[in-house]
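User: My collaborator sent over this chain with a note saying "see what the structure looks like." That's all I know about it. Can you take a look?
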Amino acid sequence: MTQRRRTSKAKAKRRFGRRAFLTGAGVAACAAAGWCLRQKSDADHTAASGQDTPTAPNPALPAGEWRAVWVSYLDWALLDFSTADTFRAGAAQLLDNCAGLGLNTVLAQVRPFGDALYRSSLFPWSHLCTGVQGKDPGFDPLDVFLTEAHRRGIGVEAWVNPYRLRSSAAMPPNLADGNLANTHPEWVCTVDEGLYLNPAEPAAADYVVQGVAELVQNYAVDGIHFDDYFYPTTDESIDAAQFAASGAENLADWRRENVTALVRAVHDTVKAADPTLRFGISPQGNPDNDENQQYSDVTGWLASGSGDAVVDYLCPQVYWGQGFALHNGSTRFAFENIVPAWLAYPRAADVALYFGLGAYRVGVGDGGSNENSLSGWSTGRALADQVAFLREQGAGGWALYRYGSLFGPEQTSLAAAECGALAAADGKETA
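Assistant: Without extra context I'll predict from the sequence alone. Here is the result:
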């Protein structure tokens, strides 16, 4: 296991990862030409945007543009977990593809279903490793992935789904005896076929925090990342008993407080381990849904900084195209409208705002009522154009959802064109 050591400044220097990559200490560890191009691109993009770099008040944030991709449990299925060597080969190819796009961060889903793609004393092995949840694959996938990523100057944020244990009866196909659904059923609520830790249970939240502590203490991750799975339902029955016992008057406010308490505890745990580690969240692109359906106080998190900070960054999922229109004619969520709306929210100086881009929309469309709902995603440069717009707006970075949409086993010519356009935008040459 890649141990994180903090016993001395000398030992701390042994860690190679995001910070070394961004400051130049890792030049010898990656291809010089590609590294220099990425560094120049970071500086150019920051200068072109005219934005104040938040690096000074927050050492966890990159000096330049944050360029990331989500590697989800769906993407892990593209890799061969049979042996450490076969997994390493697949991870190497994945990371080479990321480097070819000029990306500097991978958001690697390491706990998708109350399980782990790493050695954990708290969560069972993920079924993604062997097909059976709880079965040891015989090697540590996260350790291998971190080694290969850091060799290439790419940072890795451990993407954790805090509450989800099961999304359906078939995913995951089985639950280990050690899954929290079996060991602590009193912490669990059922929503349709899904199983989730109840956000109203303090003991469950504390367990999530312990899981984050285990990750940042035992692995040289560059940060912790949450996605948009918070309260799984608005149904009042799932936490009625806890709400009654709390004495609170407003259910929605109380639920938001429950989520924020978890988020703040995770943030503080990450910072206690190492203040240069990032903690970020990728909420839904619709802030109304965040606040009133998932009870995540995204506007409050953005505005809370310094000693009251709860996140280092937010990365809302703005998976709509240019001109997107709802069937009622509203263009509120059109890319060119929703991005400035998010940027207009009050934001603490040490909190960054990035944007998630819908790579899975390429060639498929976004379902809008506008005429270009499909054709706008079939240009071969839809993502590159969105990145250009973000830079014009002074956004600090972006992330692509998801890796497999661009580099799947049967990569389409359109996906390849999108990759080429993104690479060209970051000064990378394509074959």
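A starting point for your reply to your collaborator: The two ends are 36 Å apart (CA to CA).
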